[in-house]
Hints:
By secondary structure, the chain is an alpha/beta fold. It is built from 13 helices and 13 strands. It has helices at about 1-25, 50, 55-65, 70-85, 110-125, 140-145, 155-165, 200-210, 230-235, 250-255, 315-320, 340-345, 360, and strands spanning about 30-35, 40, 95, 100, 135-140, 170-175, 220, 250, 260, 295, 305-310, 330, 350-360. The strands form four sheets. It has a seven-stranded mixed sheet with strand order 6-5-13-11-12-10-9. Strands 1-2 form a two-stranded antiparallel ribbon. Strands 3-4 form a two-stranded antiparallel ribbon. The mean pLDDT is about 85.
Amino acid sequence: MKKLTNLITISxxxxxxxxxxxGAILLPDTEISKSERRYLAxxxxxxxTTVADGAFMQNIEKYLPDQFPLxxxxxxxxxxxxxxxxxxxxxxxxxxxxxxAALDYELKENLVEKAASKLNKxxxxxxxxxHTAYLAIIPPKNYYIAQQDSSHPVMDYEHxxxxxxxxxxxxxxxxxxxxxxxxDFYKTDSHWRQERLNKVxxxxxxxxxxxxGGLSSYTQNYSDAMxxxxxxxxxxxxLPVDAETMYYLTNDATQNADVTYVGADIKENAVYVExxxxxxxxxxxFLGGAVPLVEIVNETAAxxxxxxxxxxxxxxxxxxxxxxxxxxxxxxxLRYLDFTFLPELLDTSDAxxxxxxxxxxLNDSEMLKVR
Length: 371
């Protein structure tokens, strides 16, 4: 009986090895992991040179775990087990009321103060006399979860905002904290939902003294693929969660605006880059995602005003909603564009400035290329 048991065990083990080996050989490689929002390693080039210099072995070590059969299933199984045993995922993702969020509790006051110094330098160098610099800070979903659940540590986001305000006294401060709720964010992602930003747009346009008709006049759009949106926290946690639908809003202003992308390989003259829907990150449909400089012109705008938005990824989805109010809008991402090169690329004269940043960027300001 013992021999039979051992034989069955060995046979099963061999069958598993053969099955996975055959799967690794026969199954086509996957190019993109949409859950992790990244390109997966592909089989490396096998030449005498790559073998001799060790490049082949280094790359094959990346390729094998990326293309392992049933990889996503095993990641999900591991994450589910850790959740059931009351452990956090290794990337510190937690769940509350159907929302996934990442732990974020260390306030780095020195980096926040450095962020304020950088924004002051941009304003003092480029802002035309007689125009206004506005400062608006975007709190994360953790801020709203903490109002209902105190079981996870959170940063003092209100203190972060106060540091910025105290350190930027010549800016007009716009408080967005009370314009959002938890449900204004994607359940599986860190970003806010564009179709839920009516109060944010109202607050911004009132403070900047430009007219706006509200979001009720916009049309909600989505494709079949956008019904299967999984945010960044799905990939980080590998937890099995339901997909969401991502919408983007259009009106005459967004459809007729001229858009130029600088520093990115985007050929479309469009506010919404639909070619990005099937890419690594579906959120890039909003103004192409991480682009150093975007210029938008709306000849039929309600005003002749110019606005330069210094922004992070959140700015991509709210800027389209301001097109109806401004003749010219430029989006500058100082994470990818060195501040010293900006005057060569963009005429900022006679423009108001909106510094619109999430707390995560301000708390890690070294990434802003302002020296």
